[in-house]
Amino acid sequence: MTFGPLLKNPLLNPLDILRFLIFGMEGQDDTGLLGKITVWAVLDWFSSLAMIVGGVLPYVPQYLKIKKTQNADGFSLYVCLTLLIANILRILFWFGNHYELPLLIQSIFMNLTMLAIIQLCVKVKQSKQVIHGKEKLFTDFDWRFFWKWTDFRSYLEFVAVFTLSSSLLTYLLIGNVIFVEALGFTSLFIEAMLGIPQFYDNYVSKSTLGMSRVMVFLWLAGDSFKTLYFFTKQSPIQFCICGALQIAVDLAILSQTVWFGSTPGRRKGLAGSHVVQ
């Protein structure tokens, strides 16, 4: 992808340049237009847009549900922790290996979404406290209450500390190819393992009762599209490997629905218990 045709054309406006940066469309003539809009170009735009917003869409209904019911017990904040760490590392990986910009923007959107969910969950939990005990804060450095803090600021402080320390380490080792590649693999591997708690929960309980098959099918559809996007865009190998790993985890969870069926298993009497989302 080259910037030559854009920079030489004085008639292009900032929107054209932004569209070029995000979707990879180059100018094709000297009229100030981006060139012919083909079917493949439109598909490329839509696939890039889907990558940007597709990752956060599954969490929009969850946010709205928590806000409507004023109950955050059915959602694990460790999902937010996992995705925050994975996407912070993925953003840092971009500085060492410039992958597609839609994937970078997706990571930024995902972090903002996770912070919004954390803020809502903390607010809801605070409103339900009848007796207000001692607050649990990040600055207490009591690891028994790690990621169980009672104020939103503590979560922001942890994210800031993790981001700054990771950024400093990346800045010092950005010239080390092994470190950069390991950074990318670590970020994507963490995200790829997001479905493992669900698989383990089903295995221990010998049941998939309470698990939404539709949710898992959506995981599989989204991960399949994402992995296909990685291959067609020739993304760094870490994206392709971890995308394939996510598909394998999704298929493993779906296989449990066949193997265990809808029998209660060890969940008998616990149908209303928490299921990893």
Automatic annotation (TrEMBL):
Taxonomy, superkingdom: Eukaryota
Stretches that traverse the bilayer: 37-60, 72-95, 101-122, 154-174
Compartments it resides in: Membrane
Cross-referenced InterPro entries: PQ-loop_rpt (IPR006603), SLC66/Scramblase_ANY1 (IPR052241)
Keyword field: Membrane, Repeat, Transmembrane, Transmembrane helix
GO cellular component: cytosol; endosome; membrane; trans-Golgi network
GO terms classed as biological process: phospholipid translocation; retrograde transport, endosome to Golgi
Membrane-topology descriptor: Multi-pass membrane protein
Name of the protein in its database record: Solute carrier family 66 member 2
Biological source species: Daphnia sinensis
